[in-house]
Amino acid sequence: MHELSIVTSIVESVTETLEGYPGARVKEVRLRVGALASVERESLEFCYGIAAEGTPLEGSRLVVQVLPVVLHCEPCGLDAELDSLQSFRCPRCGKPSHDLRQGRELEIDSLEIEEMDEVEETR
Amino acid sequence: MTTRIVELRRGILKKNDELAAGLRASYAEAGVLVLNLVSSPGTGKTAFLERTLRELKARGSRVAALVGDLETDNDARRLASSGAPVRQINTHGICHLDAEMIGKHLDGWEGVALGGLDFLFIENVGNLVCPSSYDLGEGIRVALLSVTEGEDKPLKYPTLFNSADAAVITKMDIAEPCGFDRDEALKNINEIRPGIRIFETSAKTGAGMEEWLGYLAEQRAGRS
């Protein structure tokens, strides 16, 4: 269970990015998480609320997109998605492969922020 | 109010990955092969490592080990009986080692310089989930599994086994009384990590150690 350290890193990273957007409020943080990244969506969401408290991220939503494993099969010349993590074989020819093209991602994809309009700011 | 999307595309563990890349470069410069040993608690990492250190030392290799646990320095004391320099890392509740902890413990390690080593072993915290996300800059990640744990362990923890470069089965001396199904275990490891090198060992009897030590020598020669 290292999801709390993961969300703490997210909060730090986003807070740093926000320095370039003074006064902005975070509405949503979108993640791309590979099926082999060893983190669990529910735990991330649970820990996120705790880690975001008292930071500029408080009240924002965490959206986790889970990416399936994509395996490259040399004989088939094919990149194939796996629908389970129980067997790392080409779904077409059945040959085992360790040539992963996707599935280990653990990244912040984007943020949705709300900025004050200039007119409002000058008021 | 204006809503704006800010594209980041930034690795969440970027800081760890950068530190690990720095460590990897310093290991390469020093010519030391670094191995990260990962398993559940109780697999026998320490006994296996103790025997490995002892046998490597006897063959004239220069070896050292970092060992991670939540608390206590019991493992460091056990490993030190091999005669190799050993340093304990206490994570105080954190379930894995990270690159920063490794860097800190390599710095100021009295009497140990990377350049004076052939092999550095890192015994990770006993955990089959979290260590797989944290790169320590190692050259080889070793997943260990004991005959008492069940042949389906690789299927239960695919994220760790898939990320390993070598697999070690420990406690082979008690495989029979445990009803260990060797073929099933080998099949499951290969299903999760096709093409991986597998070593069937016993730290007690020394079974399989020759092959393992041969692999270490071969890997080190192949990288220097």
Structure characterization notes:
Chain A has three helices and six strands. Chain A is elongated. Chain A is of the alpha+beta class and 123 residues long. Chain B is of the alpha/beta class and 224 residues long. Chain B has helices at residues 14-30, 45-58, 74-80, 99-106, 153-156, 158-162, 182-192, 209-223, and strands spanning 2-11, 33-38, 63-69, 86-90, 119-123, 140-146, 166-170, 197-200. Chain B has a seven-stranded parallel beta sheet, sandwiched between helices. In chain B, helix 3 (74-80) links the parallel strand 3 and strand 4. In chain B, helix 2 packs parallel to helix 3. The longest helix of chain B has 17 residues, at 14-30. The radius of gyration of chain B is 18 Å and the shape is globular. Classes of the chains: A alpha+beta (123), B alpha/beta (224). Strand 6 of chain A pairs antiparallel with strand 1 (2-11) of chain B, so a sheet runs across the interface.
What's a quick, concise take on this entry?
With 123 residues, chain A is an alpha+beta fold. Helix content of chain A is 27%, strand content 31%. In chain B, strands 4-3-5-2-6-7-8 form a 7-stranded parallel beta sheet, with helices on both faces.
